[in-house]
């Protein structure tokens, strides 16, 4: 099911990383009208850690401004586009910008927030899902060990052992691999959390 | 004496001609007043798109193409406004838009003088929520006004605990609404939110007035009814609750004087509407901006006029320099015998909030707990 769109940003904080005072002032005013408290600085800012949205100038932006590995922004990231230099577009795509806003169309900031929030939610969900799948893939040996041990201890075949593990996983509401680790008494690597 | 050409882009023929004619009348009355009483001379250039969306784009390009006209007062539907915006952007021109609309837009080439949802639908819905309605039926015209106003109504009603028994849309101009009557009879709502415009609105209200419902007619509420609609609706509109920034029946000396001037110009039987009053206000505000700026550069005119209070026939209002929307006084009125009887007039203007960022959420209905003494 498609999650409902977030249409109200009252109380959110935004950081605008942009060198031009006119763009900064206009964006701050427009965000304020949407209930978003924005600060603007250049080239970098301590406020980035507390921001719910980060806007960055695509023309002048660089990786060192953003305290995360390229492409892994923990919050919605919006690229502010001025010129259309292919190299700069490539940089912005490498940062996985969730939305773009043309600097000639700052009036469209509301739709940009809606899109950025929706795409970032999807992107961060995919990152968490991939991390969880990788973690579970790393537990294959634990799963095999648990199956062998159940077969030996309870005199069942492979399917019977798996059935036993599935029942345990269902009762505990945990993945099969974690159920296997629990059966063996081994501490599985911690599951990835859902929050930021 | 400074002379400025202004465009008047209203459909005075076609499906919503009554609304367009009312706005043109208001705008022309303001032009005449300004030309008679000030050193500014406005030269109006009228264009009639006949309610055809593509014509708004073509005619605004014609008006602006000569380079000697940079302000247009006009547009009734949001569709028409959105069709004009690319042309306005290309020519650096300004549209003075005088109608209530669904919000969620802040274009740098528009001044929004009509109400946005926090000034129409939100106070209207909050009023009926406080009355304790239980079940609502939503009906609107099948374009952005209908979609967005009913989306806001649906969300606000649902949050307040009021069930939605149906939500239906009619194509613009469509008058076949027998199927809606069947649904309403079956669902038995005690509230209908009506965002239909033009002939669809008239056909729906006429059919509803003929519908025999055991529990009586549900309360119909609407944010887009004007005196122009009342003439077409007749007794079918009685009992409808409307919200607007201006009604002909508003009290006070300023409105009495305005009504007298309207009667003097158009005759005692003339019915002015919110579109009339807002288009009239738009021309006066444009004239103030032109006079203050001393030329017709749209940015200078807007900056000269925005951010300060203006005494107008709509009350004391102010155009927000960032959102470019006007503060307005939302007035509630009940239709009785073909006239709007004012139920509430807050007196002070409500700041615009076109993205509903600051509108307080609806209060959920509180059902008092049933208490029982146990021993």
UniProtKB/TrEMBL annotation, chain A:
Which top-rank group of organisms is this from? Bacteria
One Pfam family per UniProt = AmiR_N
Domain AmiR N-terminal stretches: 13-117
Q: What is this protein called?
A: AmiR/NasT family two-component response regulator
TrEMBL record, chain B:
Q: Which InterPro entries match?
A: Peripla_BP_I (IPR028082)
Chain intervals for the UniProt region annotation (Disordered): 354-375
- SUPFAM superfamilies for this protein: Periplasmic binding protein-like I (SSF53822)
**Record field: transmembrane:** none
Protein name as annotated:
Amino acid/amide ABC transporter substrate-binding protein (HAAT family)
- Provide the species name: Rhodovulum marinum
